[in-house]
Design brief:
mainly alpha; 2 domains; Serine Threonine Protein Phosphatase 5, Tetratricopeptide repeat; 6 helices
C-alpha cells in the first residue's frame, strides 16, 4: 500500500495542483487507516479545487465515520451546492442520499 502512496506523492510533486491525484492519495490514506492524512488531503483538495465534487462525498463519509456528524452534514450540504452548480446530478444524488441518512 505504501508504494501506491509513495507513487502518488511523486506524481503530486510533478503536478501539485492535480485534484484527481490528491483525491486518489486521500483514498489510499483511508485504505492505510490513516484518517488524519486522508482528511488533510481532502481538505487540501477543497482549498485548491473546490469544484472537484467527489471530495465532498468522501470527506463527508470520513467525518461521519469519525462520529463528526454535524461536520459531515455540512460537508454533504456544501457538496450538493457545488454539484448542482456544476450540473453533476449523479454526484448531487449521492450527496443528497448521504445527507438524508444522517440528517433524518
Amino acid at each position: 500500500m505504501s508504494s501506491r502512496i509513495d507513487q502518488l506523492q511523486q506524481f503530486l510533486q510533478q503536478s501539485p495542483n492535480d485534484p484527481f491525484l490528491n483525491h486518489a492519495l486521500a483514498l489510499e490514506w483511508i485504505k492505510a487507516e490513516d484518517d488524519h492524512q486522508a482528511e488533510a488531503a481532502f481538505r487540501q483538495n477543497l482549498d485548491r479545487s473546490p469544484e472537484y465534487v467527489a471530495t465532498y462525498y468522501h470527506l463527508g463519509k470520513l467525518l461521519e465515520r469519525g462520529s463528526r456528524t454535524e461536520e459531515a452534514i455540512a460537508m454533504f450540504e456544501r457538496g450538493m451546492t457545488v454539484a448542482r452548480a456544476a450540473g453533476d446530478m449523479h454526484t448531487y444524488s449521492e450527496l443528497q442520499s448521504a445527507y438524508e441518512d444522517l440528517a433524518y
